[in-house]
Design brief:
By secondary structure, the chain is of the alpha+beta class. It is built from ten helices and nine strands. The chain folds into two domains: about 5-160, Ribosomal Protein S5, domain 2, CATH 3.30.230.10; about 165-270, Alpha-Beta Plaits, CATH 3.30.70.890. About 40% of the residues lie in helices and about 25% in strands. The protein is globular.
Length: about 280
Amino acid sequence: MKVLAEAEANAAISVLHALGLGKGCSIGIDLKVLVRLVSEPQDVKEDLHSLLESVEIIWRQEGFPLPDNFGWQIVSNIPMGQGLKSSSAISCAAIKALNLATWTGLSKSEIINLSVSSQRHAGCTVTGSMDDSWASISSGWKLVDPSQPAEHSILIEGEIKEDYCVFILLRGRRSNEINTQKFKNQMTIFERSLSSLSNGSIFHAMSANGMAVAAATDDDEALRICNSAIANGALSAAITGSGPAISVVCFRQDKVLIEEVLSRNQYEIIESSFQESNLTEIIK
């Protein structure tokens, strides 16, 4: 068996959930998925939504070439189904691998469009995940209008300049159904998040967004955990995605205390950081 191509993408955490106001923002973190395109069919247990099949279908619909015989392999340290954008990472990495293997020459925005179409086809997103896909293959944060094509979707963007510690508190796979109306009912808090983001206060935006998502999903435990982290010096603490994982950002010098506070909840904790640069292949 030969490796025809391989590519990486990264996990991300939420800054603004797109269900609230129709605009979304995520930022990449240093948890990775590697997707390999190989010369023989494979059983991919990590592909819970048959997302790779949807990638193939969308790729064919666009008229792009595929190898005569191929399969997929996934190597990932991104927890699945917890709000860490694993589907966006897998679809982006798979499309990047196809792009390399077939010399298709796709731009970054074209990869994003294919990723969004693939996730919608697979039924593993309620928003289209355009902001998540941008965060999976680029550094910094981008406020995105998912109703627009990727090349016209970015409203404002920015970078994280300092070296912060990002903790991810894992609380198991998502079990609750997402109620769109409950998100819209929290419009006032989402607007507070958007206002903070527009002013460059990304950590305030993340925390406000997390409050809105917790209210929309009836997650009182998340509010308690986040309030405790912020009271002990965290810069932000919030549900990421639709949950249930919680992201907590702090200064490096405060990481020992924050980790101790989080460990009292007896959930698994992952330490990470913000994604600083583009991954593996440079895409224009």
